[in-house]
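Friendly challenge for the regulars: who can give me the structure tokens for this chain first? No prize, just bragging rights.
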Amino acid sequence: MDFIKIYVAGIIIFCLVYYVGIFIFMKRKKENTQKWLLENPSASKIFVESKSFMENSGLYIKNVDGQTPVTFYEGRKGGIYLLPGNHIIEAMYSQTRPGIIYKRVTKTYGPVKTDVKVETGKTYKYFFDKKNKNFIFTEITLN
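First reply, four minutes later:
Bragging rights claimed.
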């Protein structure tokens, strides 16, 4: 009986430490992003879109110009910040769906390098077109 109490207490302590660590990490990440935005006010937002219904899919940006991009989240939408100019985005797209013979079937596209041009004050969307099997970078207008 004492073993079960110690085990449960250990799990509770681990979960608390884990959640506190995640909270501190996310707070630091947000502070670093805000600091970067103050230093780079001309940065544009690029929303990274990946959506699906019956399949698990995701668009993963490996790097931009060989470096880790500055990321953001607005609610359930996320993306990256880029400074004005030409950039090379290296990305991968992976989708997993239920299979008939196998439990899951996964397809991965990439990594693919996309050359993009970003202008000051504009908002963009970067996504994978499943029909044509290619990555698309396009400007969007916010209402």
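The CA atoms of residues 43 and 98 lie 40 Å apart. The chain has a mean pLDDT of 87. Your move, everyone else.
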